[in-house]
């Protein structure tokens, strides 16, 4: 009998931090992407609100709605057997009140069938995180550059470079950790600050533009595969030029259709000669 794939639990992920084993995380937004990254052996999959930019054509993450998040979380959770799947809470789905945050976290967790939810913010979100966890939903924090409120931070810039800004980010990390988040994304901060935070908190730290000393690393699916051409931040390493590869395949298909090179017999159904003769008489052609 085929062995059932074992789902990675939160205690499994936490023990990886304790044992100094690095944690890999990537975004995914669809059933085939979920299948692909799970088969590759990724530890955590984030159905991120980066969805807005890389899949839905928005200029940022703020327009993304709960309905859109849910529509993309569901196929990913249907695909994944091993990885821990995180559903991202879209802007304004948790910022109005604690009650609103619990309700919407519940919708993503229950209807989306994800393993945890993620929200952005530091000290100001600690009570919200605590309340969502008290309601029974594992929660992932996200501090540093928080894209949903990047306008308030002066744009998409590295955070925590000055002494005061770095102290505030340490306080943010501690607040999110003490609120009970099991993991925290550290986005676009100096590696030395990420190292201090990673040593100080119990939570797993997952860096994106935060250097090697985090407990794990996350990148966006489309960035790793060279599928998003609009811009590539400094922290992105492109591991494959899938766009160029796919573009060539589609162009080859177009050319073969135009030049009547496809479909050849290999890709075609035929019928027996006697049936064809009768059919031709019937059709008069
Ligand atoms: O939405 C997202 O993809 C994210 C990651 C970049 C961490 O929040």
CATH classification class of the largest domain: Alpha Beta
**H/E order of the elements?**
HEHEHHEHEHEHEHEEHHH
Number of helical runs?
Answer: 11
- Unreliable segments (pLDDT under 50, ≥5 consecutive)? none
- C-alpha geometry: elongated
Q: Strand sequence of the main sheet, in spatial order?
A: 1-2-3-4-5-6-7-8
Mean pLDDT: 96
Let me know the CATH homologous superfamily of the largest domain: Phosphoenolpyruvate-binding domains
Major beta-sheet overview: 8 strands, parallel, barrel
CATH topology of the largest domain: TIM Barrel
Number of strands: 8
Counting structural domains, the number is: 2
Which small molecules are bound? 3-methyl-2-oxobutanoic acid
- How far the N terminus sits from the C terminus, by CA atoms, comes to 55 Å
**Residue fraction in strands:** 5-15%
Helix share, percent = 40-55%
**Protein structure class:** alpha/beta
Radius of gyration: 23 Å
Characterize the structure shown.
There is one protein chain. With 285 residues, this protein is α/β, with parallel strands linked by helices. The protein has two domains: 10-240, TIM Barrel; 245-283, no CATH class. Helices cover 42% and strands 13% of the residues. The chain is built from eleven helices and eight strands. It has helices spanning 10-18, 31-40, 51-54, 66-79, 98-111, 126-134, 163-179, 191-200, 221-224, 242-258, 273-283; strands at residues 23-27, 44-47, 84-88, 116-118, 139-144, 183-187, 204-208, 216-219. It has an eight-stranded parallel barrel with strand order 1-2-3-4-5-6-7-8, surrounded by seven helices. α4 (66-79) packs parallel to α5 and α7 (163-179) packs parallel to α8. The radius of gyration is 23 Å and the shape is elongated. The mean pLDDT is 96. The protein binds 3-methyl-2-oxobutanoic acid. Residues 27, 46, 48-50, 88, 142, 185, 208, 218, 220 line the site of 3-methyl-2-oxobutanoic acid.
């Amino acid at each position: 009998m085929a062995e059932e794939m074992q789902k990675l639990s939160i205690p499994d992920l936490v023990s990886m931090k304790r044992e100094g084993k690095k944690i890999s995380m990537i975004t995914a937004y669809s059933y085939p992407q979920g299948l692909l990254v799970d088969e590759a052996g990724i530890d955590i999959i984030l159905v991120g609100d980066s969805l807005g930019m890389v899949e839905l054509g928005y200029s940022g993450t703020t327009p993304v709605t709960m309905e859109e998040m849910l529509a993309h979380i569901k196929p990913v959770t249907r695909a994944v057997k091993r990885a821990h799947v995180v559903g991202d809470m879209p802007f304004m789905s948790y910022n109005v009140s604690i009650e609103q945050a619990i309700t919407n976290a519940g919708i993503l967790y229950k209807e989306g069938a994800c393993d945890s939810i993620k929200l952005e913010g530091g000290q100001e979100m600690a009570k919200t995180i605590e309340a969502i966890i008290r309601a029974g939903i594992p929660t992932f924090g996200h501090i540093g550059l928080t894209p949903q409120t990047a306008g308030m931070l002066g744009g998409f810039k590295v955070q925590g470079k000055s002494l005061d800004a770095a102290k505030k980010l340490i306080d943010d990390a501690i607040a999110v950790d003490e609120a009970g988040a099991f993991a925290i994304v550290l986005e676009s901060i100096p590696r030395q600050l990420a190292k201090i935070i990673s040593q100080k908190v119990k939570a797993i730290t997952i860096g994106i533009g935060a250097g090697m000393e985090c407990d794990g690393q996350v990148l966006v699916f489309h960035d790793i595969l060279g599928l998003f051409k609009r811009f590539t931040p400094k922290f992105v390493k492109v591991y494959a030029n899938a766009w160029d590869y796919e573009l060539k395949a589609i162009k080859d298909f177009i050319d073969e259709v135009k030049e009547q090179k496809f479909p050849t017999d290999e890709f075609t159904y035929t019928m027996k000669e006697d049936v064809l003769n009768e059919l031709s008489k019937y059709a008069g052609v």
